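ARCHIVE CARD
Drawer: 12
Card no.: 0347
Subject: one protein chain, sequence and derived structure
Cross-reference: see card 0346
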Amino acid sequence: MNSNKFFSFSRFYLLLRNDILLNYKKYLLTVSGAFILGFFVIYSNMPKYVQKDELHWIFGSQRYFQAFIMCLIGLGAFIGSSFSELSNKVKTTNYLLLPASTLEKYLIKFLIHVLAGTILFLIIFWIDAHLARYVTINNMKATHNEVLSYAEKEKFIEVFNYSMFLIKNTRLTITYWSWFEGFAIVFGLFSVGMYFFNVKIFFKKLGLIKTAISLIAVLYSGIVVMMLLSQLFYPETKVFEISSNMDYRLPNGYLNIEVWMYLSAYFVSLFLIPLGYYKLKEKQL
């Protein structure tokens, strides 16, 4: 078997260089837009008016995480635009005729849109979080015409760092995600990203919209299956309701539904990556 047919560093470099030269303006605009949008999302959620010595509403880990999830929508849109060359017949033909293997074409898009896009997203979010905090604190006002020092204002907005996302709950006592839960969340987000990454390979037009609709359809299908199982094993359950007996706690302390969701998060991406590759290979053939 001639491995050069599947991957060549020289072809890979030339294909990467070609993609950057053709799309660098679009990438620069995307990065600029991400800076502006990320700042707006974080800044708009930070408190502008506070009450002195009332620290019950602190912008901390939970609210940073909410803003992070909102910003992930933008990253998902960027990842979903990976194979924009497959949007019409002319562009598709030109793209498929590029002198590179299917593996190289797939890896190039993964490198730029998933790997580089995620790294830049994390950097941009970190910068925006600190910038939004600085601007908010400098413009923060207290109710009842109270005067707040800069040090007092800082108490209402915590300094952002990614270690905050290790916190699961802050009620009563601080609890942290276990390694099993943490990796499940990461792999779950990665699976959603890979779902959007392969969108253009399957849908030529309105790819992102069709992907969002299909993702919602998958979630609702899971709910329908749960309702059918409830009716099958627990006939006393009302129609369109899920039996509470479907949930039970395992010896490890997790609910069976939680374990199913965590395992799905771990293994779905292992199915999506080869599926997207072979679908692109099918177009190449």
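Annotation on reverse: The longest strand covers residues 167-169. The mean pLDDT is 82.
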